[in-house]
Write a structure and sequence with these properties.
Elements (H helix, E strand, L loop, with lengths): L12 H8 L28 H4 L1 H31 L5 E4 L3 E4 H27 L17 H17 L6 H13 L1 H7 L22 E3 L16 E6 L9 H8 L1 E5 L8 H5 L5 E5 L11 E3 L4 E3 L6 E3 L5 E4 L11 E3 L5 E3 L16
Helix pairs in contact: 3-4, 3-6
Family: Belongs to the Rieske iron-sulfur protein family.
Subunit structure: The cytochrome bc1 complex is composed of a cytochrome b (QcrB), the Rieske iron-sulfur protein (QcrA) and a diheme cytochrome c (QcrC) subunit.
Membrane topology: Multi-pass membrane protein
Length: 358
C-alpha cells in the first residue's frame, strides 16, 4: 500500500507531519544534461500496517514481549540445567550421537536466550519504531551550538518515537530479559572448579601415621635423620601408583630437618619436635611450589619458584619473598616400635592462602 492510498485521517499525526516536512531533506536537484548524476531524493514514504492499524501494532507488541519472556524462561532453564543435570549424564541426539546432556542443555538454553533477545529487538525496530527516512547534510566535526541542540532534540524525538514509555509491556519484559540473562555468566563461574568444602583444611596425616621416606619408601627412625639433613617424607599408606597420589601428595608432602634442640627458637616448634627433628609442610605458602632448597648453616628453606625464604629454626616464619605466612608444622613423636609418627593432622591449611582461610 503506498502513502497516496492512505486516507489522511488514518495516518498518525507524527507520521503525517514527517511526510509533509519532506523527510528532512532540502529541495531535490533534478537531473539534466549538465548534471546527469543529481541526487534523485528519497522515494515516497510507505506506511507499515502497524502505523495505520493499532490492532496490528498490538500484535507486534505482544510478539516482541513473547520473545523477551522466552529469553527469560531460557535463562532460568540454563540455571536449572546447570544445577540439576549431572556432569556424566549423556543423551543421544541425531545425528550427533551420544553427547553430554549438560552441555547440550546449556547450549540450547543459552542460544534461545540470546536469539530471543535479538529477535525481539529486531522485530520491535522493524514494526513499531519510526521508519521514516531522513537525509541529513554532513557537517564539520566540531558542532555548532544549534547543531548540538538539534541532536538533543532528535534524541528526544527518537525516544518518543520508540514508544518505550507508551509500550510498557515491551519495556518491562525487555528489562526483565536483560536483567536475567547475565545470570548465565555468573553461573559459569561455578565451573572454575568444584567447591572444596573442607578438603583444603585436611590432609592424609592423622594420629599414628608413620613418616615414610620418599626415596626408600621405608618408615623412618630418629636415628635415620642426621643433624643438618633434609628428608622428604609422605604419609604411611600413600603409594605412587594410587589414582589420587598427585592430589594427596600435593597437600601432604612433608620435609623433616634435624636441628640441635638449643638452636630452635620457637617454643611451639620445640614442643612439636622430637629430639630436634622438626616436620614442616613442603608446600610453599605463596603459590604452592614444592620447597626443595635448604641452607644447613642458616636453617633457611628456599622456594625455587619465587625465592620465598623460611627460617626453620624459628617456626618456619617468612624472612624474605612474597609468601604470605609461615609453613605449617606437623606435630611428630615416636611410636612403641621406635618409628617417627604424626600425632595429628596439620593444625592449619597447607599451601597458599584462600578466601575462607581463618
Amino acid at each position: 500500500m503506498s502513502s497516496q492510498d492512505i486516507p489522511e485521517e488514518n495516518v498518525p499525526a507524527e507520521r503525517a507531519s514527517d511526510d509533509h516536512a519532506g523527510h528532512g531533506h532540502g529541495p531535490v536537484a533534478l537531473a539534466d544534461e549538465q548534471n546527469p548524476f543529481a541526487d534523485p531524493g528519497l522515494p515516497p514514504h510507505e506506511h507499515r500496517i502497524q502505523d495505520i492499524d493499532e490492532r496490528a501494532a498490538r500484535r507486534s507488541e505482544r510478539l516482541v514481549a513473547l520473545l523477551f519472556v522466552l529469553s527469560m524462561v531460557a535463562t532460568v532453564g540454563f540455571i536449572a540445567s546447570y544445577v540439576a543435570i549431572p556432569n556424566d549424564k549423556s543423551v543421544y541426539i541425531f545425528p550427533l550421537g551420544h553427547i553430554s546432556a549438560l552441555n547440550f542443555a546449556l547450549g540450547m538454553c543459552l542460544g534461545v536466550a540470546l536469539f530471543s533477545i535479538g529477535a525481539g529487538a529486531v522485530h520491535w525496530a522493524r514494526t513499531l519504531m519510526s521508519d521514516v527516512e531522513i537525509a541529513d547534510e554532513r557537517h564539520p566535526i566540531e558542532a555548532a551550538p544549534e547543531v548540538k541542540a538539534k541532536v538533543l532534540a532528535d534524541f528526544k524525538d527518537g525516544a518518543r518515537e520508540s514508544a518505550l514509555g507508551r509500550r510498557k509491556l515491551i519495556r518491562n519484559t525487555m528489562f526483565g530479559a536483560l536483567a536475567l540473562f547475565p545470570l548465565s555468566g555468573v553461573m559459569l563461574l561455578r565451573d572454575l572448579g568444584p567447591l572444596p568444602g573442607t578438603k583444603l583444611r585436611h590432609t592424609l596425616w592423622s594420629k599414628g601415621k608413620l613418616l615414610v621416606n620418599m626415596n626408600t619408601n621405608e618408615p623412618l627412625r630418629p636415628s635415620d635423620v642426621a643433624v643438618g639433613s633434609l628428608t622428604f617424607v609422605k604419609p604411611e599408606g600413600l603409594e605412587e601408583h594410587d589414582e589420587d597420589f598427585q592430589k594427596e601428595i600435593a597437600k601432604a608432602a612433608l620435609m623433616i630437618i634435624r636441628l640441635q634442640p638449643e638452636d630452635i627458637k620457637d617454643k611451639q616448634e620445640l614442643e612439636w619436635s622430637y629430639q630436634g627433628i622438626v616436620a614442616y609442610s613442603k608446600i610453599c605458602t605463596h603459590v604452592g611450589c614444592p620447597i626443595s632448597l635448604y641452607e644447613q648453616q642458616t636453617h633457611h628453606a628456599l622456594c625455587p619458584c619465587h625465592q620465598s625464604t623460611f627460617d626453620l629454626s624459628d617456626g618456619a616464619r617468612v624472612i624474605f619473598g612474597p609468601a604470605g605466612h609461615a609453613l605449617p608444622q606437623l606435630q611428630i613423636g615416636v611410636n612403641a616400635e621406635g618409628y617417627l609418627e604424626a600425632l595429628s593432622d596439620f593444625k592449619e591449611p597447607v599451601g597458599p592462602a584462600f578466601w575462607e582461610r581463618g
